[in-house]
Write a structure and sequence with these properties.
This protein has 222 residues and is an alpha/beta fold. The protein has a single domain (57-219), classed as SGNH hydrolase (Rossmann fold), CATH 3.40.50.1110. It contains ten helices and seven strands. The strands form two sheets. A five-stranded parallel beta sheet has the order 2-1-3-4-5, with helices on both faces. Strand 4, helix 8 and strand 5 form a beta-alpha-beta unit. Helix 7 (125-139) packs parallel to helix 8 (155-176).
């Protein structure tokens, strides 16, 4: 015959309290490890200030975009001095606002931006494509290469990314810019491959040499 409930209940209650307490303690530890909004904003402002100070640097190639671009060691990947103008969290509007940070010496500018518009700001592909065109015009008459916005592991987001890429591709085909396809390097069946990403959006290290090889191949073209 089992123990009376009044003997079992205190044990169960103690176990429940211990579980809940452990959960909240671990949650607080996890939250403490996350960067705060203040630290993220501060980091963004610090990097933007640095990019503006470097606007007079003498570089031929510029990589312009968000955190996916920022994480690339482009000078080593491309074998020459490259101005990395990637800035984490940037949307097309943010990039448009800081085109002055692109050195005037740049002969070719590779642009990739838009995923933060679609995912974070919930803007339409139509509006983001319009901003991309504004970026291209602001960088004119320098040569601008619009790179495909990379797919993610999230199917619901990839439809908008595909539409944005189609619009950007059509715009470049009309002669305003060149278009560089990258999704075939990292994606399969319209999804970013799990072996090519650390979090469903950003790339693993081995993806960047593949990206750089395609940039080099295009850079050899007239």
């Amino acid at each position: 015959m089992g123990k009376p409930w009044y003997l079992v209940a205190p044990v169960l209650l103690a176990l429940l309290v211990g579980f809940v307490s452990g959960f909240w303690i671990e949650r607080e530890r996890w939250v403490a490890r996350l960067p705060s909004r203040v630290s993220i904003a501060g980091s963004h402002a610090e990097r933007l200030d640095q990019l503006n100070l470097l606007s007079s640097s003498r570089t031929r190639v510029v990589m312009l975009g968000d955190s996916i671009t920022q994480r690339g060691e482009w000078s080593e990947l491309l074998g020459e001095v490259v101005a990395n103008r990637g800035l984490g969290g940037d949307t097309t509007r943010d990039v448009l606002a800081r085109v002055a940070s692109v050195p005037a010496s740049a002969e070719k500018i590779f642009v990739m931006v838009g995923v933060d518009d679609l995912a974070g700001a919930h803007r339409s592909a139509l509006d983001v494509a319009a901003d991309t065109r504004r970026i291209v015009r602001a960088l004119s008459p320098r040569k601008v290469v619009v790179q495909s916005v990379l797919f993610t592991t999230h199917p619901n987001l990839n439809g908008a990314i595909a539409e944005l890429n189609d619009r950007n591709r059509a715009y470049c085909a009309a002669g305003a810019c060149r278009y560089l396809e990258l999704n075939d390097l990292f994606s399969r069946d319209g999804l970013l491959r799990t072996d090519m990403t650390v979090d469903g959006v950003h790339l693993v290290g081995k993806a960047y040499p593949l990206w750089a090889a395609r940039v080099k191949a295009l850079d050899r073209d007239p």
